[in-house]
Design goal:
Elements: E1 14-17, H1 25-39, E2 44-47, H2 58-68, H3 72-79, H4 83-90, H5 101-134, E3 144-146, H6 150-157, H7 163-180, E4 187-189
Parallel strand pairs: 1-2, 3-4
Helix pairs in contact: 2-5, 3-4, 5-7
Length: 198
């Protein structure tokens, strides 16, 4: 889906197209590419299709919260503003309403943590696959754990403070990174009862 939008692409920031339809294949591909580029330490930016002027970072600000599930009420709580303000910050035609530096910092911090966790997960699974190959077994990554519901997360980790969605975003990106490593990713759902996993 994100072929061509790879860390090896040319010098300078890779500019990814990002429109208003977050669930469209093109937007999903741009989110995947942004995660891959971030994990590879490559700079990237985003741009609205058919821009009619500078967007002051609005496209990038729209992409990151979409990836992190920080739209609507979650975004307004994190940024300390109303939902209407978040909507205006994200809207390509509301050029006079620009995300605040504090909002950029907040979403950037969440983004960096998500990418770091995805890289950690991919590294652990890749190392396990290498150990399996060294033992003469098939080089295959262990499954990643995906928490379908907040209650599943809380059964394992206690009250959710934002970790549930962040972890699932990291798992999603880790699966992409494993695929880039030539490993077939797989995912299992966490049991609501931790004891049932053993």
């Amino acid at each position: 889906m994100a072929s061509g939008l790879v860390p090896e692409a040319g010098e300078g920031p890779v500019v990814l197209p990002y429109g208003s339809g977050a669930s469209t294949p093109a937007c999903v591909a741009s989110r995947i590419a942004a995660g891959r580029l971030s994990a590879a330490g490559r700079p990237w930016d985003a741009s609205f299709p058919r821009p009619d002027g500078p967007d002051c970072g609005k496209a990038r600000f729209r992409l990151m919260p979409d990836m992190l599930h920080l739209g609507g009420e979650k975004g307004s709580v994190l940024f300390g503003v109303t939902r209407q303000t978040v909507f205006a910050w994200r809207h390509p035609r509301m050029r006079d309403s620009v995300p605040s530096p504090a909002a950029f910092d907040a979403v950037g911090e969440r983004w960096s943590a998500m990418v770091a966790r995805a890289s950690e997960l991919a590294g652990m699974m890749s190392a396990a696959a290498d150990r399996a190959a060294a033992d003469g077994r098939r080089r295959m990554a262990p499954p990643l754990t995906f928490y379908r519901l907040r209650s599943d997360w809380e059964a394992w980790h206690g009250p959710d403070d934002g970790g549930w969605r962040s972890e699932d975003c990291s798992v999603w990106l880790a699966a992409v990174l494993l695929h880039d490593m030539g490993l077939e990713p797989s995912v299992v759902y966490a049991e609501a009862d931790p004891v049932a996993m053993f």
